[in-house]
Amino acid sequence: MAENIGSIEALLQEDRTFPPSEEFKKQANIKDPSVYEEARKDPEAFWERFAGELDWFKKWDTVLEWNPPFAKWFVGGQLNVSYNCIDRHLKSARKNKAAIIWEGEPGDWAVYTYRDLYREVCKFANGLKSLGVKKGDRVTIYLPMVPELPIAMLACARIGAVHSVIFGGFSADSIRDRIEDSQSKLMITADGGYRRGSVVPLKQNADESITGDTPVEQVVVVRRTGTADAQMVDGRDIWWHELVSDQPLNCDPEPMDSEDMLYMLYTSGTTGKPKGIVHTTGGYLTGTYATTKWIFDLKEDDVYWCTADIGWVTGHSYIVYGPLANGATTVMYEGSPDYPGRDRFWSIVEKYACTILYTAPTAIRTFMRWGEDLPESHDMSSLRLLGSVGEPINPEAWVWYWKNIGGGRCPVVDTWWQTETGSILIAPLPGITTLKPGSATQAFPGIDAEILDEAGNSVGPGGGGYLVIKKPWPSMLRNIYGDPERFQEQYWSKYENTYFTGDGAKLDEDSYFWLLGRVDDVINVAAHRVSTMEVESALVDNPKVAEAACIGRSDEIKGQAIVAFVTVKENINTSDALITELKQHVATKIGPICRPDDIHFAAELPKTRSGKIMRRLLRDVAEGRALGDTTTLADPAVVESLKEQYGDED
Ligand code: PRX
User: Fold this and answer.
1) Which residue range(s) make up the domain with 202?
2) pLDDT-based confidence at 381, cuts 50/70/90?
């Protein structure tokens, strides 16, 4: 990880600070810094208070049972997530408040009050039951950003089924692997979704993913684009609107044990096989509820917009569960930020008078490139708080966001977390924390984050190393679906009883955290996690490829870009056409987000004498740096020739 830290030194030169304004502080939910100390003294009592703000059918007996690496929170308690996100708000004036404001890319829209959401979720939950879905069954959801997506998730939660949402950008093969792993008998999809003015053929991908031997017996199809009417398969496929048309408007929520599974969500790891991250009920909801409330300083009249796709964890926790558990109004947008114009986001902020905006640095850097005129042409005075997530934010982008989107009056909360952590673990509390552009600042109260060196010593202020979490927290992953060994190995084997995040970080003299990126073979492309091993497997799946090695190189907009070094089989000619073919091959195998940005052909890949590919050297080559230590390299000439070749191509 040394090279990661090196490249970030410049970032640590950043010395601008932004204390909360008096005006913001005055109205902030949390302004007393003693919350940190209180939570440190008794984290279990701290979390228990938030759990107590949720509605439980039966109160828990024990806050935490910790048998490392397995944690159980609020043991003995019973609750239902859909009840907490909907029903309990119907007892107050929130009943008629907008729960979801949805806008489709073509410009269509829908608003669901909490009462509307209740009806839609109950109808679909009854529909699922009528198809034979029971508590504990896994349901795969492969939908675009349409209201049926959160409705389907909440309906699963209502009847105790476990949802596995797959991002609409994944290909048929990726869906197939995830279905196989989760053994879902039911899939929910749509005929298509809109993206940049075109239709993404979801039904076609879904159909391809369940040919031959598959556990999927039934497919529910949302009619969104009207493009798949001819593809409905008799006896297997059923339209969503037909399924719900005669269903009763009420469906009793299933009482779930606090530790019953709520959902699984696949994420890339250091092998070619994605991991099904397991989240459970009581702790997950407590974590997302608490962090949404405090970090976004949520108020009753906020209009909160998180621009993520629900196919990723950010959408699960901060479009659906966190905001709805708080009774907030959450905005959902289906499409691309540049359709029909590059001011689409700002027109949405203006139209719905959004007060909170939560987006990713890659988007912010794109907006920077598109220029200030676009946000300036819209009234965004409703905004009062901004958030950032998914990758390190460079100080320039932070300050641009603060000034040009937030008008210099909105705190920017840079939030660090992972699919595995379930909710935000490192972020400012906007009424308390002095912000530093580029730093996610401090651990949320109740979270024991530390930076350790290789030997497991805490590095202290000024030091750099591996970010770890030392105590269990309510929304932590409970397991990798069906693979407890990998769970143990991946997260709990580096240090004893300590969660290993896979991220490098530095601590500054004020004990602020500066995240430096992954220290493993996972890369962050446009705030999406990509496994280099997965891309490599997709490349060698092409019959012309002998060997492949992928690395992430820094990219001004996307944070990191995917670079593949490929050796071809004998008698195969390397050409631009082959580069195009291989890029497309990866996009088809996994999904367009994994399409390599650059492909370089090499006669050989640099390997250690034991045959391990030296990715560090490839990163040096790709980023044009002086080569580091090459003493363990089997054949140093390999790298030199690569470097020459790479230079020529540039
Ligand atoms: O490397 C960190 C980066 O994203 C990884 C988690 O990716 P994923 O599970 O897809 O979840 C993304 C949304 C939570 C982390 O290991 N990351 C996430 N947020 C930040 C970040 N890196 C720096 N700063 C952040 N705020």
Assistant:
1) 9-335+343-505
2) very high
